[in-house]
Specification:
heterodimer; A: 15 helices; globular; B: mainly alpha; two-stranded antiparallel sheet; 2 strands
Chain lengths: 333, 291
């Protein structure tokens, strides 16, 4: 991997984020926002592997998030297995589920894949709800509080959680960076841009897509376990739910799907925005954060169809357009 | 056996309304090539509109369709002109339209929450709790009326698509967009009309649902996945197929509910959905290779 601008900027951003708990995120409330934002960056980066870079739009990443969260938590609650191992089990299960779903449905075209993934996560949610003797059902699953037990993936303060998710996000960033300039990544992008042409050139499209999907599922499930251990409570709606899937996809889309920086910018921008709006206006009117969130979605869709990362390009284009209009407005001498 | 007939008949009655609503979703997908994640919210607006017309000027459903449907038609046209058009005409990419329609859906939900509060609202008519007893099968009068209305409106919709110039233009857009435009079809007008019609169909659905299904700001989310399933079963963009798809959805849901478990009725439906997709990707009535 070449030591270029992206990696340098990523390192600087990581160092800034590392220092945040000392000077900016000093209360447990602000630290919580930081953790949530980084979680959404990690999820967006995971989604980006198959849906952004590979162009196979998944609307059901809640399925993998939930599988990660529930596998590790159930192993812990029912069998006493440490979530560090449960995390691996969850990732394997998520990869298998992704492969089983992807194998038949990658033959379908874009729109259908999107709907199959959307529905797959809803099915898991319903099963999780109704199989309550095993999963805890609708009321959710409480993870026993142990306070300070690093061996059991539990810590007394939010700071270790912040650094764990920061480390995960950094690794996901490096991984995305590696994919984008690896042979595998070029194959995925070629499939996204023109599947027929890519297949003619000898790329095994099913194999590439399945690999990408499995990787994406694994990365998502690992964050699922982190979430369960951080919140210490999970229920079907907050893991497999429709909103979880939609928000994972939207963070990446608003930032810029298929790019390295898009998911990072999307996650770091949307979550703090909603949190700040909620804190400022909650007393006056509930739901201001949702409206603000939806306005951002709509505005970005209309003006920046390729996401916030294309903002500099957009400004440049606008400027040159204004320049051209000025030139043409001058009377011919 | 009575139990089975009961399940099938309730399924058909509920499925008819769902089919009507799914026709709108399918129309927009076929003509404008947008998967409208805000379609459930249009149903919700139809329900609240019906509620307001009933409490305000005491015109009951289904007669208030004549007020609510035109209003939602106008709303749909505006929605297209103001928000959909900049995204649709710019690109055919899926990503921006996804964030656009999800954004619209969230926004409408929150605004409805501000205006109507999270409480459930309903319009109770004398026929809400009246039942006919045919053989040993019970038929709810409100559901029967709703089914008949959706049958009539779907028939009118079919007639419109088959016999009028506007309908022909819309079908041409579904079949081949470029050629249709070359033949001089004004795509802007047709797109606006399609979104408007879709919103009006959602309004009719919401209107007749209101007599036996309470409205809440998030009620649309309960119908959206079902409507997706109906649209795909009928073949995406196949408007009449979506109506039949809706009825199948209703039957599968009710039969699973009776024979497997009530909570699993949607899981059974989703499994049938995935099976249909894998075996007949272009839908039960779709043309081979379309899309």
């Amino acid at each position: 991997m070449k030591w270029d601008r992206d990696l340098k900027a990523g390192l600087v951003l990581m160092l800034v984020l590392t220092s945040l708990p000392w000077w900016a995120l000093t209360s447990s409330y602000t630290l919580g926002i930081g953790i949530t934002a980084l979680t959404s960056v990690a999820l967006a980066l995971a989604w980006n592997v198959i849906s952004g870079i590979g162009g196979q739009l998944s609307m059901g990443h809640g399925a993998y998030f939930g599988l990660g969260a529930y596998t590790s938590s159930l192993l812990l609650v029912r069998l006493g297995v440490t979530p560090w191992i449960g995390m691996v089990a969850g990732a394997i299960l998520a990869a298998l589920f992704g492969l089983c779903l992807g194998y038949p449905s990658f033959r379908l075209k874009g729109v259908y894949f999107k709907l199959v993934t959307f529905v797959s996560s809803l099915i898991l949610e319903i099963i999780c709800r109704s199989w309550s003797s095993f999963t805890g059902g609708d009321p959710g699953l409480q993870i026993p509080l142990l306070r300070n037990a690093p061996a059991m993936y539990q810590f007394a303060s939010p700071i270790p959680y912040f650094y764990i998710i920061l480390a995960m996000t950094s690794l996901y960033f490096l991984f995305t960076r590696w994919i984008l300039c690896s042979r595998f990544g070029y194959y995925l992008q070629a499939l996204r841009d023109d599947q027929v042409a890519a297949e003619v050139l000898g790329i095994n499209s099913l194999y590439m897509k399945l690999t990408g999907f499995a990787l994406s599922a694994i990365l998502t499930a690992l964050v699922g376990t982190f979430y369960a251990q951080y919140v210490l409570f999970i229920d079907p709606a907050s893991t497999f739910g429709m909103f979880v899937s939609v928000k994972i996809a939207l963070a990446a889309i608003v930032g810029g799907a298929g790019t390295l920086w898009g998911p990072v910018i999307g996650g770091l921008f949307l979550i703090p925005l909603a949190e700040v709006a909620n804190a400022e206006f909650a007393a006056i009117l509930t739901g201001v954060d949702t409206v603000l969130y939806s306005v951002v979605l709509i505005v970005v869709a209309i003006f920046l169809p390729r996401g916030l990362v294309s903002l500099p390009e957009f400004i440049r284009a606008r400027r040159s357009e204004v320049q051209r209009m000025k030139v043409s407005a001058k009377p011919a001498s | 056996m009575t139990q089975f007939f009961q399940a099938v008949i309730s399924g058909i009655l509920v499925g008819g309304v769902l089919g009507l609503v799914s026709m709108g979703l399918s129309l927009v997908f076929g003509v404008v090539r947008i998967i409208n994640f805000a379609h459930g919210e249009l149903i919700m607006l139809g329900m609240y509109g019906t509620f307001l017309v009933y409490t305000g000027i005491s015109i009951p459903p289904p007669f208030s369709i004549l007020i609510v449907a035109p209003l939602l038609f106008v709303f749909g046209v505006l929605l297209y002109r103001v928000l959909f058009e900049p995204v649709v005409l710019g690109s055919t990419e899926l990503l921006p339209q996804l964030s656009l329609t999800v954004g619209i859906s969230f926004a409408i939900q929150t605004i409805a929450l501000w205006i109507f509060s999270p409480n459930h609202r309903s319009v109770q008519m004398s026929w809400t709790t009246t039942y006919y007893n045919v053989g040993e099968v019970f038929i709810n009068q409100a559901q029967l009326i709703a089914f008949l209305v959706s049958l009539v409106v779907s028939f009118l919709m079919w007639l419109g698509l088959a016999r009028t110039d506007l309908g022909r233009a819309m079908r041409a857009m579904v079949d081949d967009r470029e050629v249709a435009q070359m033949m001089g079809i004004n795509s802007r007008r047709i797109y606006g009309f399609a979104v408007g019609t879709s919103a009006a169909l959602a309004a009719v659905g919401g209107n007749i649902l209101m007599t036996y299904y309470p409205a809440s700001p998030t009620v649309g989310l309960q119908f959206l996945p079902l409507a997706f399933v109906a649209v795909v079963m009928g073949g995406m963009g196949n408007v009449l197929g979506a109506f039949v798809g809706g009825i199948i959805v209703g039957i599968v849901q009710q039969v699973t509910g009776v024979y497997v478990a009530f909570q699993l009725q949607n899981a059974g439906l989703m499994l049938v959905f995935i099976a249909v997709l894998l075996l007949r990707p272009s839908g039960l009535f779709g043309k081979e290779g379309s899309l």
